[in-house]
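Q: What does the assembled structure look like for these inputs?
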Amino acid sequence: MDLIIILQAGVASGTVLLFATIGEIFTERSGVLNLGIEGMMLVGAMTSFSITLKTGNPWLGVVAAMAAAGLISQIHAFITVTLQADQVVSGLSVSFLGTGLSLVLGEGLSKAGTVSLLPSFSIPYLSQIPLLGPVFFTKQSVLVYIGYLVFPLCWYFINKTRPGMHLRAVGEYPAAADALGINVYRLRYLYVFVGGMFSGVAGATISLAVSPGWFSELTTAGQGWIAVGLVIFAQWNPLRAAVGSYVFGALRRLILDIQGPLLLFGLPNPFYYNPYYGFFLQMIPYAFTIIVLILGSREAMRKRMGAPAALGLPYIRGQRGL
Amino acid sequence: MTESSLKPIRRLQLPFQIHVEQRLEDVPRWFPVLISFGAIVVALILGGIIIVIAGGDPFATYIHIARASFGSLGVFSDTLVKATPLIFVGLACALAFKMRLWNIGAEGQFFMGAWGASLVVLLPILPSETPQWLFILVMLVVGMVCGAIWGFIPGFLKAKLQVNEIITTLMMNYIAVSWVNYFIFAVWTEGGFQMSRMFPKNAWLPRLSDLAESMPIFRGLTTHSGLLLALVAAGVVWFILFRSQWGYEIRLLGDNRDAARYAGISVARNTIFVMMLSGALAGLAGMSEISGVVHRLQGAISPGYGFTGIIVAWLAKLNPAAVIVVSILFGALILAGREIQPSGIPKMIQGCILVCLIASDFLLRYRVYITRRIQE
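A:
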């Protein structure tokens, strides 16, 4: 069990959570809660795998995943923004629909064999840095490197640019944004779509890079829901989301790898001699999510910050409210 | 200003106009039923289109579903068996949703209920020659307690620390499944198989076929007395929600949390109690499935009952009586779905129905009418 290798793989699997979490941050910052991430990720994973299988080009797969998951997200946008229905129930239904769709359309894909994956490479010079180099810049998939670029850019976009300010305005005080001439409905549709595309990439990251293949519902194994939890922990901030995602990714890897060695810290490894203890290891990411939420909520209460003020509320023009 | 900038923007001119107007008056009682029915029809059409895309035959699929679930007394009895846990989890969700608590952990609470019921037999809490009524009573209680504990944790976190219950209940699902897996793999495994030993006969809920000696018409019918329990539970939930003070508090909290708080109703206490009762109901579903159908603890005891319960509750408009009817329809879908290829079809249809249903609520709140565009 080599710590460097675990961290390296952890960064890769954390990239999945990173994309999903960043996408949800965009959506929630515009005031729409989309619980459909798990379903949209499955649609993305299924689409990217099947398109890559057909065309042989994984990049086409990624684009198709973004389009497909984005399309599914627009159902949620229509129901919550235009029809003003409850965002929680709509998100759940989108998650069911996405899961069901990917199971029906992905039938038989699990036995389809291997596809050409996205390229992996090391970055010259950066990979020479002790410790950081092997973990972050050696033999990672190209999507992992894209992830490094995405989260600071998203932070900059949301906090420092004009469209980013519009995004925050729509999520904090839609009536005021509307009075300033910002089209609340259009922006909410747009950012739900952005969130959908990110979920699609997250799905594609699984099926084309991190753990290639299509394993029906087990492809995501609840990572979409973990991402929803990470958004709260991240306090809707992409930088904190990155930290959370990579820590979680490393944790997931550690759980897989800890069962391998005979000795653990010089003692006989209980997970090796009784593999059934692995079931308790499997609980850890989910239990950890709950703990992270508890910590996050305490901090949010203390600082009185975090959630966009209009999160979860439909905006109806001319109606009094927020 | 130049000439061109004054040109009116040319928009797509449809030959008709769609008007949307908020409804001010209450709709008649039959109207929501009609709308829900319409939503299901639309959902089935959409589902059919997806089946065609996936390369299947929608008509054959739907006819197959109808025949495999309502075709004869025998299969209808099987449909009721599938409906029984759905009634319990549907009630669990309806109760929590009424207070706008999003308990989507019914699946995990179901598993814990099943585990608790198994504990009675396998630990064992009671010796295997205990009389049937005592066995079943203790299994009921332990199953409910285990489900309630699984509901208490997210409820407590929500009440005391404002932790989002959607995520916690969902995470508890995964934990419950791993927990049960540990026991069927490592502790209660029978001969290396991933299941416990068969429960003794007196830990089984009586079936209709047990009455076949005196009434031959019941021969081979699998419907078990869990269904009776489910009907009783529906009555109890209805009474709590609509005829008791507690139910009034729950409904008020769901409709207007601030108003309820100003009226002196404790949000925290009700959150915890509602989550516990909701968990207990879902736990009952697990107990009835273990004791009435499977008769042992194993991994594949739920085809996603807990999640279907959410749809059942929503389709029933959170009404306990309607939960029973809807559960039977969804029981049919689950029963017939086992033989349909591709295997994801029932889940996909459920998703379609829920999406259409939520979208259709708009028609209850708004009047939509279409007029011809007047030529300018």
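The two ends of chain A are 54 Å apart (CA to CA).
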